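[job 0417] fold request received: Aluminum-activated malate transporter 10
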Amino acid sequence: MAIEKEVSGQVQWSIRINDDSTKVLAPEKGLLSKFFLGLKGLIIWIFSKPAKFFHNAWKIGCNDPRKVIHCLKVGIALTAVSFFYYMRPLYDGVGGTAMWAVMTVVVVFENTVGATLCKCLNRICGTFLAGFVAIGVHWIARHSGDKVEPFIVGVSVFILASAATFSRFIPSVKSRFDYGTMIFILTFSFVSISGYRVDKLFDLAHQRLSTIIIGTSLCILVIMTVCPIWAGQELHTLINRNMDKLGDSLDGCIADYFSGNNNKESEKSYKCVLSSKAAEDTMANFARWEPAHGRFNFRHPWNQYLEIAAAMRGCAYCIEAFNGCIKSENKAPEQLKKQLSNICLEVSSNSTSVMKELATILKTMKKSSRLDFLVEQMNTSVEELQNDLKSLPGVSTPLPLPLPENSTPKLEANDDDSSNVAASVPVSVPLMEIIPLVTLTSLLIEITVRIKSTVKSVEKLADLAHFQPMTDEKLKKSDNNKKKVIEKDQHKEEDETLRTLQRV
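[job 0417] inference complete; emitting structure tokens
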């Protein structure tokens, strides 16, 4: 405790520590104990890293067993091609260039059938074309004399390598033949430059081409026979799944706004639509190389899937803007929100029904007879929303004119007249309070417009891919659903008319 003393006219401070407040200090650890603690931490760290790695690897394999199957397929292909080294007859037939077959398997084996076929055909065509051109250049250079031969080979390498490299910047070439162009540059440079010192250039080109054909053939055989993964099927499933998530996200965002909740699941759903463009482009490119499989023909309109995905991204961008308005600090009055909550929820419900029906069309690859009816329902609800927007105060009602100072409205003693005058005075809402709600409703109307473009894209796909109509049982179910909806609407109209008559 602090004690204040006065010594010779000056103030002196002193601190006295009570005997009871004693503190026990732990003895310092020695160097040996510190060493053992550090060694223990190092051993735990060394063993925890592999355990964590194997745990993550196990989770990846459990989440997607096809990745494990792909690893096994690569092992099968490499084991099969290695027999060209182990078996003497095969090794004598191919020669020392059998390692090119092993390298080909490692380079061209991909996860999907389309990607593997794309790389295999690009590698074969690039190698064959480069070998053919290199042999022609070599023949011209040999017949031009020993002094001119290196210049002809050098100039040909410069011109062809530069032209092939420039072609890789062309979008159509880059998307389909980029790997083949790179192989062309590699093979032509290798064969033409080696031909200056190697006499049997034709044998070298033949061995390289044969080993590449062997490696690519084994890759194609394994990828198409052992649990094949088709890029077209993956693209079809991805678009269908994104469409389902988009419908759930739209319904969830509208419900969260009018209920006051903040559900993060709906936010994650539409963001996967925005981030899947690169995967969709890649799958569509590889799907063009695949043969007919499952429900997909050889010339299936894969580009139309990209149009559907682009239309869905337009809807997702509107939902993102809608979600941003929900998180804004400028909130609309609760009274106005309640006035539009029912019709906005109806618009979102009808829009979600349209998206779900489109997802069903893609999943079953059958034309739906309910789609036009659902779109009509969505349009009707949008018209009702627009009519309700016109009835909002401050939107269609003019603002009251300012009265002159020291003047009061003249009212008679009759109560009815005073109520009529009060009713005739327009009610207005501040503009900044009504802007958030009008923005949200306009975004909701814009989402329905984007959904219509998605409907057109799906219908175009159904026509190009020759989707068959639904069976009779499904048609009967859809007709029954239509009748139920019509009966409900009729009952609603009858109830509304009765209520109006009762009020009158």
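[job 0417] notes: The chain has two domains: 51-225, 231-392+432-468. Confidence is low (pLDDT under 50) at residues 1-5, 395-404, 407-426, 500-504.
[job 0417] exit 0
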